[in-house]
Amino acid sequence: MLTTHFGIRELRNVSKIILGNLLLGFAYAKWMKPDGIINGGVTSISMIFEKITGIPIFYLTTVFTRFITNLLALSWKRKFLSIHFKQYLL
Predict the structure, then answer these.
(1) Nearest CA among 59, 20, 61, 63 for reference residue 43
(2) Using one digit for the tens of pLDDT, what is the confidence trace for 53-70?
(3) From CA 53, how far away is CA 21, in angstroms rounded?
(4) pLDDT in tens, 28-46
(5) Stated pTM of the model
(6) DSSP states along the chain
(7) Closest-CA residue to 60 (of 19, 68, 85)
(8) Cα gap 25→28, rounded to integer Å
């Protein structure tokens, strides 16, 4: 249960991650994307392709993320499974 010290600590850690992602998403949506700042990663690659092709960034990020995930899954199958399904393999 979450009443244990470990459970409370994990809940606090997850809350910090969620808060950080919310702040990062807000900053990205309010300052980086409107000003055209490209800092690397899937979203930035998608921004470049959006300028070239006119395809909305939502679709491009989805396609690139799935492509990279599938490429990793095929290339490093055992490592990929151990990372993404670690809690089930223990």
Answers:
(1) 61
(2) 999 988 998 999 888 888
(3) 28
(4) 778 877 777 777 788 888 8
(5) 0.50
(6) -TTSHHHHHHHHHHHHHHHHHHHHHHHIIIIIHHHT---SHHHHHHHHHHHHH---HHHHHHHHHHHHHHHHHHHTHHHHHHHHTHHHH-
(7) 68
(8) 5
